[in-house]
Amino acid sequence: MSTAVTGVAVGTGLTAGRAVGDTATASPVSTVSITVNGAARTVTVDNRTSLLDLLREHLGLTGTKKGCDAGACGACTVLLDDRRVNACLTLAARLDGKSVTTIEGLATNEELHPLQQAFIEHDAFQCGYCTSGQIMSGIGCIAEAHTGSREEIREWMSGNICRCGCYPRIVDAVDHVASAR
Question: Cβ distance 127 to 108 under 8 Å?
């Protein structure tokens, strides 16, 4: 014997667990003044919006990638006040007065950032999906002076996953730029 269960909601006025027109449970919004890649921006966002979604969906900066959306892969790494963060774990509403640098903000006058150039020279990417996060993390690693050895670079870059396995080349690129300083 089998039993079939079906559910029907008729005239309840409920949509996704909230009464239609019920503003008491609506998420509040915040207006945030933020500098992104050197440009001052003022945006109004739902308080649940991540920095990643602000960048990609509100500002059209799609170089920062959405990988796991849980802080485990590093594809969304950006610099927040010159410190690397996972944009998927950072709430946009808390960034008033902060400065964000994304992969789109690295090149100047059509000249690549030295680490972007090193990634090309050392063939440090294959599919390229993790590349923007790897580069942003590498810049943070260099700025934080965690480049004393290849082992140290590997350790401090370990929060960034590359499914293609380009780790030795990524370390080569970071080491190359760090050594040139």
Answer: no
pLDDT per residue rounded down to tens, the chain (181 residues): 444 444 444 443 333 444 445 555 667 999 999 999 999 999 999 999 999 999 999 999 999 999 999 999 999 999 999 999 999 999 999 999 999 999 999 999 989 999 999 999 999 988 999 999 999 999 999 999 999 999 999 999 999 999 999 999 999 999 999 999 8
The predicted model scores a pTM of 0.84
Helices (H), 25-149: 51-53, 114-121, 131-143
Residue 89 is encoded by which pair of tokens? 């774990």
The answer to whether the beta carbons of residues 54 and 37 sit under 8 Å apart is no
Identify which of 157, 160, 179, 168 has the alpha carbon closest to the alpha carbon of residue 123. 168
Q: CA-CA distance, 32 to 24, in Å (whole number)?
A: 22
Task: Tell me the β-bridge partners of 32.
Answer: 43
DSSP reduced 3-state for 130: coil
